[in-house]
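Box S2. Input/output pair 1.
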Amino acid sequence: MTDPCLTPNGGLPRLLAIMARLRDPDAGCPWDIVQDFSTIAPFTIEEAYEVADAIEREAWDELEGELGDLLLQVVYHAQMGAEAGRFDFHSVAERVAQKMIDRHPHIWGDGDRDKSADQQIADWEAAKAKERKGRTLDGVALGLPALLRALKLQNRAARVGFDWPDTEQVLDKIQEEAAELVEARDQLTQAQVEEEMGDLLFVMANLSRHLGVDPEAALRGANTKFVRRFEAIEDALSKTGRTPADSDLTEMDALWTAAKQAETAET
């Protein structure tokens, strides 16, 4: 009998069989056997970010592999769920399939399809709120990156009217929080400094939301720019046989400005 794990072009059934074999207590991989939901979760998050990274870089030749790695994480969790008698891959797939049907009555029901994308988003959020049947902020995952979670919490609160009407009030709040941070730095404990820094970052996320800016994307862009310009500093110093450790802040700041001006000239 042909081993399904070794069947070429076996698709999803092949992948499911491979995962079951890896987790087999008698014939599986020792590392895979001892894993659980909590130990695999960090890999799941990492793989999702690698998918986002490939898309950000438009590395389409890498995206197929990254999506496969992310799919493997779903298969891994589903296998552990099946072993515990909680759920399996097929029940996971059926659940999300039914959710898509229920949330798209304008496609598989008598809902009106003649609506804007914004209205469809509003309807989607209303459907999710009805499913939650709890507090407004319930269900915003604790495991999300803090910046993304702040944005989702604010979006939830805004849908029930807890929001500033315009950016001016958000900007005023940023000034207030910045002043409180300075006061904490000069007079309070490190724990209070951390708290005030968190308040300032939270309001900055809110400003991003009001400006229609994805703060995660904006920060990723800033990170990329920082790397590019710092590498320009290193390149400039290397021409004289030096590294940043051989330089000082004044020189490196001047080289940073030169790199910035060069980028501006190119655009």
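Box S3. Input/output pair 2.
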Amino acid sequence: MSAYISAFTIVVPDYDSGLDFYVGRAGFHLIEDTDLGGGKRWVLIAPSPDAQTRILLAKAADNAQSAAIGKQTGGRVGFFLHSDAFDADYTRMLAAGVTFEESPREESYGKVAVWSDPWGNRWDLLQLSS
């Protein structure tokens, strides 16, 4: 049996602000934006058009979901964006206004820098050592 994670959800205050950040600033690609009616949309993004795993941007629908925005992993880095062009991606993201919590650093496994979205979700940008 072969299995993989096809998508995971990041809850955002609204679809357009999620797209503005993740596509407009972080450099992700819009895969699908389908109107489901009643103010709901199916919004899939990915770091590259051919990525197997996608991110579903979901608009918070109630107070409990709104309270979870940016806290989905309890303040830990919960998302990991691998890059084969770390320096170029870091420079591009920084220039586009992505907030990095630190300068890039070398670890035993490769180069890494922690960044966050406007709502507090923390990510690692990393390039693994060969």
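Caption for Box S3: The domain at 70-130 is CATH 3.10.180.10 (2,3-Dihydroxybiphenyl 1,2-Dioxygenase; domain 1). The first helix runs from residue 15 to 25.
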